[in-house]
């Protein structure tokens, strides 16, 4: 898991806002030497500002994510907590697996026997951020799925909230488990991407949940790998 890094903003001086105007004619060396000494420092600062901003450039700002987190389940579940709900007479499993992977040699394997057509299985990871701030969460992960058509695909669970989901009612469902392939046999790896606006609580906590909701009866297995979360402050 990569460590959080500080929010960085790089700004260029805006044109015609608080900086010196573009000179029409530079002073000669004789004119400059004739100025009182108290003018030398402002001139030097002005020259530095012109060199940095230029007279024909518009303002720019480059913001990088405050947190860039990644998980590939090489050390078991790496702090993710497995959960399930609405199983009826079914069963489930969520564990690290060496069966297949896109990063390293392991992935997280989610299995669901779902006779009632309502079962849900997911993993949740606690994230520590800056308290009471708004973020944009960009979540991506690799999904190994044998669901290649849209009609029989199950729903994906993707939840980013300031409280851990204690029941199925606290989950959000976005997208589906389909690979989108016209033809396919057996599990195929596909990338899933989502963007979610979120706000941390007074302790700076968020909970990310990933999993599947079995919307039809049956038994299926999926694998998750290369989970990446980019969190960028928006306030």
Protein model, in words:
The chain is mostly beta strands. It has 2 domains: 18-58, no CATH class; 67-233, Jelly Rolls, CATH 2.60.120.260. The chain is 9% helix and 43% strand. The chain is built from 2 helices and 13 strands, in the order E-H-H-E-E-E-E-E-E-E-E-E-E-E-E. It has helices spanning 29-34, 40-53, and strands at 9-11, 61-63, 67-71, 81-85, 91-97, 107-114, 120-128, 134-145, 155-161, 173-176, 188-199, 205-213, 218-233. The strands form 3 sheets. Strands 3, 5, 6, 8, 11 and 13 form a 6-stranded antiparallel beta sheet that branches. Residues 1-55 have low confidence and may be disordered.
Q: Any key phrases for this structure?
A:
mainly beta, 6-stranded antiparallel beta sheet, 2 helices, Jelly Rolls, disordered N terminus, about 10% helix, 5-stranded antiparallel beta sheet, about 240 residues
What's the structural blueprint in terms of helices and strands?
Layout: E1 9-11, H1 29-34, H2 40-53, E2 61-63, E3 67-71, E4 81-85, E5 91-97, E6 107-114, E7 120-128, E8 134-145, E9 155-161, E10 173-176, E11 188-199, E12 205-213, E13 218-233
